[in-house]
Write a structure and sequence with these properties.
The structure is a homotetramer of 77-residue chains.
Chain A (H helix, E strand, L loop, with lengths): L2 E2 L4 E6 L3 H18 L4 E5 L2 E6 L10 H13 L2
Helix pairs in contact in A: 1-2
């Protein structure tokens, strides 16, 4: 589930291995560019962390973050 | 299932949409380079076709093709 | 350069190796989904072939094909 | 250039836009799995940060880190 702070939506993901994590990241990359909204994200081996915030709105959560979060949830295996 | 001809192993895949197909292709790309054995493959929207053959062995099926095919099967959703 | 037939725009690309080809394909994948227009494309090791046609327009070349072709040209190394 | 600390090699990269950054990340992903050595890395839009350390050696820099760093440098545009 996405954690909601004053500033952002955050979620951590864990996959079987790096290759599986990469399959997920590759799908999210396409979604991000399509939504014209890019995550702050990091990866180590099978773990992925994604942070969504809207810089243009003064680092708050907006509809753009919620829509991208929902789209990301749909590509989870 | 992989179709076996005199020359190659071939298999077609179908996914929900392009993004899902791309998640699969991205994993296979890593596997191919790791195995140092690269497929002949094509994609249109949600469809992917993969053909495996060993050029160095005169375009026949070798253990390299069978191993890559098995690795590909394991990243299927 | 893109070859223009009655039905499609086609172009072949050659890269240093598979990894370089994959860097290109990964960028084109994002562009394709962003344009909501997906190529017929294939890859073997360092070679990539892309064919652009508009199925909805009876397999002819439309502005959608020309725009995606132009976008693809811009991500070439 | 890679910054060297007691524990890791670190380098920041900047690209034209997200798509260009993704082309780079996609190549590094393949290299990482091929080397069986995975970076700690993050991305925001056109910026990428990579940190290399060898966990199995008590979070120090080893030959594995130097080799992956050299391979990464070779896929820079």
């Amino acid at each position: 589930m996405w954690r909601e702070t004053d500033e952002s939506l955050e979620r951590d993901f864990e996959f079987k291995d790096f290759v599986a994590a990469w399959g997920f990241l590759s799908q999210v990359a396409i979604l991000a560019e399509k939504h014209q909204h890019h995550p702050e994200w990091s990866n180590v081996y099978n773990r992925v962390s994604i942070r969504l915030t809207t810089h243009d709105a003064g680092n708050t959560i907006t509809e753009k973050d919620r829509k991208l979060a929902a789209a990301i949830d749909q590509v989870l295996p």
